[in-house]
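User: Hand in any protein.

Assistant:
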Amino acid sequence: MKTHILIVDDDAHIRELLRFLFTKEGYAVFEASDGEQASKVMETEQIHLAVVDVMMPLRDGLELCSEIREHYDIPVLLLTAKGEIEDKEKGYLSGTDDYMVKPFEPKELLFRARALLRRYQLVSSEVITLNQTIINRKSYEVTAKGQTLLLPLKEFQLLAQLASHPGRIFTREQLIQMLWGTDYEGDSRTIDVHIKRLRERFSEMTDDFVITTVRGLGYKLEVTER
């Protein structure tokens, strides 16, 4: 079965460019000119990746991204003419996995799309492998360099969430909602405490991955290249 890409943009020229780019690589392409049309496509087609413009009529890309994140488990790549940090923050708060500013390099967009599709193949797996570090979501065990750790539940869930999407930026608020729930009344800085503990546990144990602070946005896990 071919991988299905949904392109959502009110600019017909952008859609044509992306259709050519993805079709040439063997992907099946679906198109929508606004968020409402995109929702209808997703109701009838199995989509594996959505490339979404931010500024659109009827329902903009941020609204569509939030809807996708609520109802579907697929990666989203936002395209926008706005590159300020505040605009990027809005994009990541809406749940996007990646963010590119127009004008963009078509080949780079293709590389990023491939990376997102690879990352999302990890999500459905009970075992996440980061080089020699293995995270088992069934047994709640982490094995690194032959040593097995049983982490406190929230630390394990936080590590597994970040590791399921290497390179994806998560805000503190997103992580709080995912792990503690929407009714959590504590300080979102509790995420910082758990991140600090994870870094301390693994810093001397393995260099298979690193948890990076993205200033003004949140955190992401990056796998060390071998």
Remarks:
- Helices lie at 12-24, 35-44, 61-71, 85-93, 106-123, 153-164, 172-179, 190-203.
- The domain at 4-123 is CATH 3.40.50.2300 (Rossmann fold).
- The longest helix spans residues 106-123.
